[in-house]
Specification:
Layout lengths: L61 E5 L8 H14 L4 E6 L4 H5 L11 H6 L5 H4 L1 E2 L5 E4 L5 H7 L9 H6 L8 E6 L5 H9 L2 E7 L2 H20 L5 E10 L4 H14 L3 E7 L3 H8 L3 H4 L4 H15 L1
Parallel strand pairs: 1-5, 1-6, 2-4, 2-5, 6-7, 7-8
Antiparallel strand pairs: 3-4
Helix pairs in contact: 1-12
Length: 312
């Protein structure tokens, strides 16, 4: 399966044009469900994707790695809320916390330092299976494979292992028939743990903050994805680029959005995640925004993203 190519040749590798262009984004940018004929936040006509049909059976799972080596771009928030939105549409979802900081676990109300067993034990101990560590979440149909600081040791310990890049793939294999989606929240680096996630994944979702410096790091990430594709996982593809922390009131956000769409074309999701105070609230509550504020713009955006992910 070939990787989708950016719309403009050569612009995905650090050559993204950031010059000022006429603003094409609308100024509300809030409701991806809108049927209006104006342009959406991406500058493209709004496209309404219908709710996906119900499933007769579950599996095999599609594995999606939520990846960006830059921190604070919305990886964990997007993993939680995309997973919850997919579960709302009747999909069985497994969330994998693959970051030693354990932010995904915290965001779902789990205290990582209190856990006796985590994904680290599943990876490093043959006697520990997925079922020994899996935790249910407050969302029906969505489970969590938690993490804590112990996982930081795995990056060092795996170096001497045979097939070290395929360790996560091996761990997930028994669960593939039970879920429709496995979402892996990667750490903000391009180390061995992230390579493991990319080796196990069918696709990569790249959350991209609508800010100039976020664009500059995408080229390095795409280089890493291409190396994994060439050497470890030829079926890996970029599922989409997700614009996060978008503020339709600022010219800067709209300019960055225009450059992202110009550089990557249809790879960019129509769904755009706006900057809002609701997301920090959900972290404190330990619940997805689809449960904490189900009618909010953020919840609607992640439901729109879930429909796109299923449709793609």
């Amino acid at each position: 399966m070939s990787m989708p190519q950016p719309a403009a040749e050569g612009r995905s590798r650090g050559a993204v044009d950031l010059s000022i262009a006429p603003d094409k984004a609308d100024d509300d940018g809030l409701d991806p469900m809108s049927d209006s004929r104006d342009l959406g936040p991406t500058g493209r006509p709004r496209r309404r994707i219908p709710e996906p049909p119900a499933l007769d059976q579950h599996g095999p799972a599609t594995v999606l790695a939520m990846c960006n080596q830059k921190g604070g771009v919305g990886k964990t928030t997007s993993t939680i809320n995309l997973g919850a939105a997919l579960a709302e549409y009747g999909r069985r979802v497994l969330l994998v916390d693959f970051d030693p900081q354990g932010a995904l676990s915290v965001g779902l109300g789990v205290q990582p330092h209190q856990l006796d067993q985590t994904v680290y034990n599943v990876i490093m101990e043959r006697s520990t299976g997925l079922q020994d560590v899996l935790l249910p979440t407050s969302v029906n149909g969505m489970d969590l494979l938690p993490s804590n600081i112990d996982l930081s040791a795995a990056e060092v310990q795996l170096v001497a292992e045979v097939g070290r890049e395929q360790t996560l793939q091996r761990v997930l294999r028994p669960a593939m028939s039970e879920y429709d989606y496995v979402l892996v929240d990667c750490q903000p680096s391009l180390g061995l743990l992230t390579v493991n996630a990319l080796s196990a994944a069918d696709g990569v979702i790249i959350p991209l903050e609508c800010e100039f410096f976020s664009l500059r790091g995408v080229a390095l990430l795409i280089d890493t994805i291409e190396k994994v594709q060439e050497r470890l996982n030829p079926d890996l593809e970029i599922s989409g680029i997700l614009a996060t922390m978008f503020d339709p009131r600022t010219l800067h956000s709209r300019e960055v959005m225009a450059r992202v769409v110009e550089a990557f074309g249809e790879i960019v999701f129509d769904a755009v995640i706006n900057r809002t105070v609701r997301f920090p609230e959900t972290t404190v509550a330990g619940e997805p925004i689809t449960r904490w504020a189900p009618r909010s713009a953020g919840a609607k955006s992640y439901r729109a993203l879930a429909r796109e992910v299923i449709a793609r």
